[in-house]
Amino acid sequence: VQLVESGGGLVQPGGSLRLSCAASGFSFSSFLLRWFRQAPGKERELVAGISSTGGSTNYVDSVKGRFTISRDNAKNTMYLQMNSLKPEDTAVYYCNAYWRQQNYWGQGTQVTVSS
């Protein structure tokens, strides 16, 4: 089982990034997928989630209207489009796959929003 995030980096406030999470080794299309983030000194926070079919999504209030979660079950990949980034979005972003007590994590990708 592997979840590999990519797309993080340094961006100026107001900028955009697109994170990807490539999965392998499990039945991707059956799983609920989520993005979490953890800033230094803070607890890991759920940012967004998407149902197995992609028909339902949810977001933490602080990112609503700025972030969009999506998935491509044919490519076993999940995405997080992040627009209008703010310094408070700075964190390590993790992808997570969950289904029937199976819970998998990626290694994380750093997102830094700074001028």
Describe the structure in brief:
This protein has 115 residues and is mainly β. The chain is 0% helix and 54% strand. It has strands at 2-6, 9-11, 17-24, 32-38, 45-50, 57-59, 67-72, 77-82, 91-99, 102-105, 109-113.
Overview of this protein structure:
The structure is a single chain. It is built from no helices and eleven strands. The chain has strands at residues 2-6, 9-11, 17-24, 32-38, 45-50, 57-59, 67-72, 77-82, 91-99, 102-105, 109-113. Strands 2, 4, 5, 6, 9, 10 and 11 form a seven-stranded mixed beta sheet that branches. A hairpin with a 2-residue loop joins strand 9 and strand 10 (102-105). The relative contact order is 0.32. The model has no long low-confidence stretch (mean pLDDT 97).
Q: How many whole angstroms does the radius of gyration measure?
A: 13 Å
Low-confidence stretches: none
Number of helices: 0
How far apart are the termini? 37 Å
Number of strands: 11
What does the main sheet amount to? 7 strands, mixed
What's the mean pLDDT score? Answer: 97
Structural class: mainly beta
Helix content: under 10%
H/E element sequence: EEEEEEEEEEE
Using the alpha-carbon principal axes, give the shape.
globular
Strand content: over 45%
Which helices and strands appear, and what pairs or packs with what?
Elements (H helix, E strand, L loop, with lengths): L1 E5 L2 E3 L5 E8 L7 E7 L6 E6 L6 E3 L7 E6 L4 E6 L8 E9 L2 E4 L3 E5 L2
